[in-house]
Structure formats: C-alpha cells, structure tokens
Write a structure and sequence with these properties.
Elements lengths: L20 E10 L9 E4 L5 E4 L5 E9 L8 E7 L6 E4 L3 E4 L5 E10 L5 E12 L7 H126 L2 H36 L7 E3 L1 H19 L6 E5 L7 E3 L1 H25 L7 E9 L2 E8 L6 H4 L19 H13 L2 E7 L3 E9 L2
Parallel strand pairs: 3-9, 11-13
Antiparallel strand pairs: 1-2, 1-4, 4-7, 5-6, 5-8, 8-9, 10-12, 13-14, 14-16, 15-16
Bound molecules: adenosine-5'-diphosphate and magnesium ion.
Adenosine-5'-diphosphate binds next to helix 4 and helix 6.
C-alpha cells in the first residue's frame, strides 16, 4: 500500500496547457469617405507588410487563433502600435477596424489565449504603412518651396523691374525738371544781370542828368550874368566918370591952391581946400557905388548862402531894373522902353535872401524887356514898349508886380512856362530855367507865390508875393 497521500486540486489541473497559435488572416482596407465601400482584401498569407495610399485608410484586421480544443473559446488581445496606447482585450472578437488612420507606419499586434487562459504572448504582427498624400510628401514640399520661392523671386524680380522702370521714369522726369529749372534759373540770372545793368545805366543816366542840370543852372546863371555884365559896365561907367572928372578938377584945384599959398592968400587957400574936400567926398561916394555894383555882380554869380536877412525890396527892384534895362540896351542898341515904377516907400524890409530875390527879379524883368522888344520889332510905330514895376504891401504879403505890354502868353503854353527847360526863345537866348528857378526860390525858398495874368496880344503881369508880416 502507498503510504502517501495524494492530494488533488482540480483547479490546478491544466487540462489544456498549450497556447494557441495566432495569425492575421486578412487585412481589409477601403476609403472611409467612399460610401460605396469599395473594399479590398489582402489575404495575409506570407504577407506581413502592406502599404496603402493615404485615402485607403479604413483598415480592418481579421485574425484567428488556431487551437485544437474549443477554438471558439479563444480570447484575443490586440494593439496597433503607434495608435493604441495599450493592449485592448477583444475577448472572442476576431476582427478590429480602424477608421481614418493618419499617414504613418503602424504595427498591428495580436495575441491569443486558449479557453484555459494560456496566452501565446508571441502573437502575430502585421505592418501597415499609410502613405502620405502626394501633396504632403517631401518632394511636394520641395516643389512648394521651389514654386513659392520662384513666385516670390518672380514677384520681387517683377516688382524690382517695375521699380527700376518707375525710377527710370522718375529720374528722367527729375532730369527734365532739373534742366527746366536750371534753364529758368539761368534766365532769371541773365534777367537779373540785365536789370542790374539797366539799373546801373539808369543810375549813370540820372547822374548825367544831375550833372547836366547843374551845368544848365550854371549856364542860366552865366546867361543872366552876361546880361548883368552889360548893365554893370554901364552902371560902373557912370561913377567912374564922376571919379575921373572930380579927380581931374581936384588936380587943377591943388595947383591953384599951391599958387595962392605961395602968394600968401590965406582966404583963397581955405576956400580951395573946402572945394577939394567936397570933391574928394564925391570921389569917395562914387567909388563906393562902383564897389557896391561889383560886389552885387560877384554875389549874383556865387551860389546862394540861403541866408535870409531884412531886405529892402524897393532898392533891390530899382537896382536890378536898371541892370536889366542897360543889359538889354547893351545887347540891342535899338532897344528902348518906358519904365514905370511905383514903389511903396513905407514898405518894411522883407525877410528874404537878397541874391535869390534879385535873381528872380532879374529874370522877370529880362523876360518882360525881351517880349516888349520883340513886339516893337514888328508892331506899328505908335507902339510904346512899356514895363511897369509896382511894389506894395497887401494882407501880410509884399507884392512885386511886373507888367508888360508885350505879346502875352498863349493859353496853350500857360501851364508849361514854369516847367524847367521850357522856352520859346531861340537857342542861345533862353535856357527855359528862369521861371522854374524863380518858382523854386519864391515858393519853396520863401513860402511865397507867383501868379501870372496874361491876355494874348496885350501883355502879361507877373505877381510875386512874399510873406511879410
Ligand atoms: N513876360 C512874358 N511874356 C510872354 N511870355 C513870357 C513872359 N515871361 C516868360 N514867358 C514865356 O515863358 C518862357 C519861359 O521863361 P523862362 O523860364 O524865364 O525861360 P527863358 O526866359 O529862358 O525862355 C519863355 O520862353 C516865354 O515863352
Ligand atoms: Mg527868362
């Protein structure tokens, strides 16, 4: 007898210790978007890898465990590497479907256990590669890059060509503008030069004019001085005659005086000495007169000092009237005229520049003598050339009125006779400056006025007024 106890635990009895063989039977794939479900089946005999296009990405794996005992009770577990995180217990289910697998490489692993739970861990594998669509392959990317790069390059090249062309146009425009501007500038410069030279010419012309005016004024002075000289010569002649006569007589008287002194006739000596004294006084008087005349002439030719002083208009008018008259006669022996003077002996002295007022008088007198003389040459014999000079005080002004019975002033030139250089006299006889200078002296220099009244054919009247309060 066996003395041993045989214990038996039915649970420990593995009635089926052999693990089942497992294999992937087939792989079915289709396009999940295709409703017609055009399926393709690969019999997985001796095939372990399948590559599928990107759109054939619904994949079903059919697998089977081979076991001789109760194969229907086999259990399975599977995992799609790169997709499932872990093994998935499929129990007795023998297929699994993956919808929409992304492009990539997957390894389908499946293992099986027999009805007693003995696992075949080795299992079976099947590799599925879902291809990328062509447009996401590397060469497609290269193509994209190339195409994009070319496009960018083309665009840049196009833009830069456009820019260059545009720049060229701009440059041309700028060049044209610049050219135009520089031309305009040159023109401006030349205009400016022209203007400058014209201005210089004008300035020169102005200077010339001033010089000419100065010269003309001087020649007017000289002309009137010329007229004066003749009068002066005549004036000086008179006192000189006195001086000569009295000195001759004095020489004789001295001889007589010597005789009477030798004879001892004291009474006669004293009488002769008295005569001599009288003679010498007369000589002195006439010498002084001649001296005054010469001084007056010098004053006339000098430029005026512009210094106003109390001036006796009666004396001044008398002096210049005589000078003008004799000057006229010296030039034209046939000249003669009646002089009518009406002086106001009570007239107070006028504050004036004597040389200047003298010059005004001389010109007005000369003008008057000139017209009456001209008229006398053509008028009937009964014509009596007459010049009247009146001096009077009237309402705060001293009036010097010079009236002639000459030809008068035609209306057409009345407005012009005061203008400088206006003259109706032949060249050499008039400068046309007398009245304009007179106007300046009277109006601007003395605050006075010159009025002209004239009737053509009958005569003229020049009324010079000077303020005199
Ligand atoms: N008393 C006058 N009678 C007529 N005309 C005169 C008289 N005084 C001046 N005139 C006119 O006025 C002009 C200008 O005179 P004036 O300025 O003194 O210059 P000028 O005596 O050198 O001609 C004279 O040429 C003359 O035509
Ligand atoms: Mg004159």
């Amino acid at each position: 007898m066996f003395n041993s106890v045989l214990s038996f635990n039915p649970d420990e009895i593995k009635s089926n210790p052999v693990a089942p063989q497992v294999q992937v039977e087939s792989v079915v794939y289709s396009n999940p978007k295709n409703t017609e479900k055009a399926e393709h089946t690969i019999k997985a005999v001796n095939v372990t890898t399948t590559t599928l296009p990107y759109d054939q990405n619904r994949v079903t794996f059919n697998y089977v465990g081979l076991h001789f005992v109760n194969p229907a009770q086999n259990k399975y577990a599977y995992m799609l590497e790169n997709y499932d995180k872990d093994w998935i217990q499929a129990q007795t289910q023998r297929s699994v479907t993956y919808n929409n697998l992304a492009p990539g490489s997957y390894i389908f692993k499946v293992k099986a256990a027999n009805s007693d739970g003995v696992w075949n861990n080795k299992g079976a594998t099947y590799r599925i590669i879902i291809e990328s669509p062509w447009w996401s392959r590397w060469w497609a990317w290269v193509l994209y890059i190339v195409v994009f790069g070319s496009a960018v390059y083309g665009f840049i090249a196009y833009r830069s060509r456009r820019l260059i062309a545009h720049n060229k146009i701009l440059e041309e425009r700028i060049a044209i503008r610049t050219h135009q501007l520089s031309e305009a500038n040159e023109e401006l410069h030349s205009k400016q030069d022209e203007i400058t030279s014209q201005r210089d010419q004008l300035a020169e012309a102005f200077d010339d004019l001033k010089a000419a005016q100065k010269q003309l004024i001087q020649s007017e002075k000289m002309a009137s001085l010329g007229e004066l000289t003749a009068g002066i010569a005549h004036e000086i002649q008179n006192p000189l005659n006195f001086v000569n006569n009295f000195s001759e007589v004095s020489v004789e008287l001295l001889e007589e005086l010597t005789e009477e002194a030798k004879a001892g006739h004291n009474g006669d000596v004293i009488a002769i000495a008295g005569n001599l004294t009288q003679n010498l006084q007369k000589i002195q008087h006439h010498g002084k007169r001649a001296d005054a005349i010469v001084k007056g002439m010098l004053q006339h030719s000098l430029t005026t000092s512009g210094h106003k002083e109390p001036t006796d208009l009666n004396l001044l008018a008398n002096e210049y009237l005589r000078l003008a008259y004799h000057g006229m006669r010296a030039k034209d022996k046939s000249f003669s005229a009646e002089l009518v003077t009406d002086f106001d002996e009570k007239l107070s002295k006028v504050n004036a520049v004597p040389q200047d007022i003298g010059r005004v008088m001389l010109n007005v007198f000369n003008n008057a003598f000139y017209v009456v003389n001209q008229k006398a040459k053509t008028a009937r014999p009964e014509y009596k050339p007459t010049v009247e000079v009146r001096i009077a005080q009237q309402n705060g002004s001293a009036l010097i009125t010079v009236k002639d019975n000459g030809s008068g002033i035609p209306d057409s030139i009345k407005d012009k006779i005061m203008q400088p250089f206006f003259t109706t006299k032949p060249t050499g006889e008039g400068t046309g400056l007398g009245l304009s200078l007179s106007y300046d002296i009277v109006v601007k220099g003395h605050g006075g006025d010159i009025k002209i009244e004239s009737v053509e054919g009958e005569g003229s009247e020049f009324i010079i007024s000077l303020p005199n309060n």
